[in-house]
Amino acid sequence: MPAGTIRYWAAAKAAAGTAQEPYTAATLKEALDVVRDQHPGELTRVLQRCSFLIDGDPVGTRSHETVRLAEGGTVEVLPPFAGG
Asked: Where on the tree of life does the source sit, at the highest rank (predicted)?
């Protein structure tokens, strides 16, 4: 199973209580399921509003179960930013 890094920004960082943490997951859905289990509460609510970059590429409207994660990859968790 691929392992990499999840990076949190702004409100997601505050809700997770960390700037980044490792993942071990094959898909974005699997990685986010683990994150929700590890950080119940505010982060779960923040994730509903976030967009995601996988190794610099936007996920957009793709289903999270179809987004494959790579060994050594990076998931960026980006909440909406004020001021665009």
From this structure: Bacteria
